[in-house]
Amino acid sequence: MAIDKLLKDEATEEKGERARMSSFVGAMAIADVVKTTLGPKGMDKILQSAGRGQSVTVTNDGATILKSLHIDNPAAKVLIDISKVQDDEVGDGTTSVVVLAGELLREAEKLVAVKIHPMTIISGYRMAAECARDALLKKVMDNKEDAEKFKSDLMKIAMTTLSSKILSQDKEHFSKLAVEAVMRLKGSTNLEAIQIIKKAGGSLRDSFLDEGFILDKKIGIGQPKRIENANILIANTAMDTDKVKIYGARVRVDSMSRVAEIEGAEKEKMREKVQKIIAHGINCFVNRQLIYNFPEELFADAGIVAIEHADFDGIERLALVTGGEIASTFDNPESVKLGHCKLIEEIMIGEDKLIHFSGVEMGQACTIILRGASFHVLDEAERSLHDALCVLSQTVVDSRVLLGGGWPEMVMAKEVDELARKTPGKKSHAIEAFSRALQAIPTIIADNAGLDSAELIAQLRAEHHKEGSNAGIDVISGAVGDMEKLGISEAFKVKQAVLLSATEAAEMILRVDEIITCAPRRREDRM
Amino acid sequence: MALAFDEYGRPFIIIKEQEQKTRLRGLDAQKANISAGKAVARILRTSLGPKGMDKILQSADGDVTISNDGATILEQMDVGNQIAKLMVELSRSQDYEIGDGTTGVVVMAGALLEQSEKLLEHGIHPIRIAEGFEMASRIAVENLEHIAHKFEFDATNVEPLVQTCMTTLSSKIVNRCKHSLAEIAVKAVLAVADLERKDVNLDLIKVEGKVGGKLEDTELIYGIVVEKDMSHPQMPKRIENAKIAILTCPFEPPKPKTKHKVDIDTVEKFQTLRQQEQKYFDDMVQKCKDVGSTLVICQWGFDDEANHLLMHRNLPAVRWVGGVELELIAIATGGRIVPRFQELTPEKLGKAGLVREKSFGTTKDRMLYIEQCANSRAVTIFIRGGNKMIIEETKRSLHDALCVARNLIRNNSIVYGGGSAEISCSLAIEAAADGYPGVEQYAIRAFADALDSIPMALAENSGLQPIETLSAVKSQQIKENNPCCGIDCNDVGINDMREQNVFETLIGKQQQILLATQVVKMILKIDDVISPSDY
Fold first, then answer.
1. What is the mean pLDDT of residues A290-303?
2. Coiled coil: which residue ranges (chain B) (predicted)?
C-alpha cells in the first residue's frame, strides 16, 4: 500500500545489519587511510585540494589528512571528528586515535558476526578501557620535582613525537627548539606566544629559535634602521584619516577655499595626534592599522621608527613580549605603559627583511624561524613542530610520562587480558577483543617499518610477561628493545585521550542500528 | 475517482483537477494510514529501553546526529507522509510537555494502531474502536494513580530524585557516568527550583558544551559560563568581587533615530565636533567608573578607542554578549540590564564573587566563568566529551533528565519502570473489559494487548525471549499482587523494579498513554485521503 513513501524523495534508510555494516566499513576505511602514516617509518600522503589552484599538501599528520577528506559516510565523520578533537585538545596522537577506533570496530565486527549483541560488546569495551587506564596510571612516571630529569623527559617526548614526521632527520635540533620554546612559557599553554615564521630557502637545519621577537614587517622609509634602548608604543588606531564617528556628520562646503581649509584642519588633526604620540617619549611606534604617508613622514622627521599594519596576533604578542599595553588614545602619556627592548634592528633572513626586537623584558614569547627547501616542506615542518609544541605544553601542565614504541599498548593489553580471564560471561570476548585491538597498534608500527610484525609482537608479549618490562619496538634496529634506554617517551595525557576518545567513538558507532539520510539539499550551480 | 451527476445526468467535477490527484477512501485509507504510523513506530522500537540502539541521522547538509532520543530522531527524519508527520508531532508534544518518554509514546501509538488494524478487519467501526480506546485509557490512567507512590524528598535528601534521573539516563549513551550526570541534573534543578510554588524554570539552567576532555569532567557551575573573552588582551583575567555593569548600549556616540545631518562647513565646526566626539567616549567610560563597576558586560561592540579607554581606566569589559546570556547574567548577579549610560546607578550593578577567564586545550578557546553570584538561582551545566556528537547527545540526555527532575518537583508521584506500570495497567484493563457490554469490549481488550507491547519491546531489545519473559512477569504480578514487577533489562536477576531502583514519573506515564490514545483516535477517524499526485 502507500507506505513505501514514508520518507521524502531521495531520503534513504538503512536498517539493522546493513546499517551496522555500512558504519563499520566506513569507519574502517578511514582508519585504513591513515594507518600507513603511523609510527616513525610511516609514509606521507599528498592531498590535492579540489578548489581553485589545486593546491598540494604533503603531510603525515592524521588530523590534517582527515580534515581534507570529503566524506559521505556518517560513521567516518565520527572518526574524523575525534581526530580533530584530539588535535585541539592535546595536539598529537591524531592518527593513533583513529587507528585504535578502527581496530576496535574491526574486532567488534567479528564479535557481531558470531551473534554477540553490540550492547554486550560495549559494556565489555567499557570495562576494558577502564582497566587499561588504570594499568597506565600504575605505570606512569612523574618527574615534576626534578627539573633536570623533567627537561630530559620533555626532550624525549619531543623526539618521539618528531621522529614520525618530516623533521625526523633533525629531530634533536628541533626537539631542543621546541623544549626551549615551551620552557619559556613557564607553564602556560598559550601557544600563541610562540611565533613560527616560515621562510623558504636554506635547509631545515638552519631553523633557529630566537629569544626576541621577530615581526615580518618593514620599517618605514627614511627612518632609522637600528634603535637601541627602544621605547615602544604599541597602538591600534587609525593613522590614515581619522573618521568622525558621530553619526550623520558630513562635510558640506560651498567653495574651493573651504575645501582647502577643511583639509588643512584634517591635516592639523593628524599632526596633533602624531605630536601626542611623540610626546610619549618613544622612539618606536607600532600600529595595527595602516599608517599613511603623511604621518609616516612626521614620524621620520622625529626620528621615530613607525611600523604599520602589524597583524592582530603580532600586536598582541609584541605587547606580551615588551610589556607594553595596546593603546588607542593618546591623551595622557604618563599613564600609558610603554614597551621596552634593548635593540630593534632590521635583519635579513633569506631575501626578506624582518624587524627583530631583542633584549625584551618578558622572556615568555619567542620566535622560531623555520627554513626549508620548499613551501610544502615548511608547511609540514610547521605542523610537526606544532604537534610537538602542543604535546610539550600539555606535558608541562600534566607531567606524567610513559614509555613509547608500543610499550603502553602492550602494558594495557596485558592487564586487559588478565581482566578477560577473570570476567565471566559473554563480555569477556569483548574484553579480549579490546586487547587485540590495542596490540594492533604496535603491529601496524612494525608493519609500516617493514618488519616481521607477527614475530616481533610475539616476542614483545613474551617480554611483557615479565614484571616491569620496558620492552617496545625499536624500529631503527628492527628488534625488541628497551624503551627507557632508547629514550622513547610519550605523554600520559596523549595516551589517555587516545584511549578514551577511541573507545567513546567506537561505542557510539556500535550503538547504531539504523541510518536515516535526508535528501541532500539542492544547490544551485554556482559555477 | 468519484464522479457526481446532477439531476440531468450530467457529470460535474467536485474536486479540481481530480484526475491528477490520488485518493484513498474507506478501509483502504485507514489501512494505509495505520501502516504509515506503524512504520514510524517500528523505527523507534529498537531505541526503547536501556539496551536500545542509536540511530545515525544525516541531515540535508551532511551533518551527522547520533541519537537515542525519540523526539530528536523523528524531528531530524525527513518525513514526507502526512500520518507519519502526526507521529512526529506526537513525540514532539510529549517532549514539550514532559521532556522524557518520547520514544515510548510513539511505540505505544504504533502498538495501538496495530491492534486497531485487526479490529477493523473484524468489521468493527473505527469510531467504536476509538471509543473503546478512550475508555481503556481512562482505566489505565486511574490504575496508574492507584499504583503510584508518593515519594518524599527535600533539599537534603535528593537520592530518590537522582535515582529517577538515572532511569532516564540509563537508556542514553551517557549511561557510563549516569550517576554523576543525574546528580548534576538534580542539583541544577534544585538550585533553580521554587519549592514553595513547586515550579522550576528550566530557562535558568544553561547547558554549555565544549569538545575535549572526557565525560567525567562535566561539571555544574553555580554561575554563568559565557563563550567570550575580555575585549582587550591585556585586561585582567580574574576579577574578585566584581560589580558588573550590564549594558545594552554600544560604546559609541549616540545615533538618534530621527534622520539628521550634521553639516560641517567651517573649520571651527570641525574642531568642535572632534572635541565633542572625544568627550562622548570619555563620558561613557567615566559613567561606568563613577557608579563603581569593576566589569562591563556589553551586548554590543565598542571601537578601539573606547576599548583602550576602558583598559586604561582599569575597567575590564566583555563585548558582543548575546541577549539570552545577558539576561541570565543579569538574573544570576542580581543586576539590571541598563539600556542607557545615563541610567546607570550603583543599585543596578550585578555582583559576582569571582569572574575568571579559562582557556582550553591547545587552540585559542576561552570561556568566561562568572561564579559566586549574588543570586545563585542561575546555573550552568558544562559538558565535556570526546567529540561533537557525544556532546550534543549529552545535552539532549541532560535535558530529559532535567525535565524529569522538574516533573518530580511539580508532582512527586512515581510509578515503577521497566514496563511494570504498563503490565499492571494491561492487567487492570483486561479485568475491567468484561464489564463493558457491546463492541467496545473488544477495543478495550485490544488496548490491553497494545500496552503489553512496551515491555515486549524492552525484553526484545535486551536480548530476552519476549513472549516468555512477558508472560512470566505477568503471572508473577497477579500471583504476588505486586505491580512493581517488570522486565529485568540489565540482567541483574531481580524482577522487582523497586529493588532495582527504576522509577518513572507518574505524569510522564499518564501523558504517554493519553497522548498516544488521542493520536490514534485521530488517525482512525480519517477515511479519505486526497493528495496531489506526483508531478
1. 78
2. none
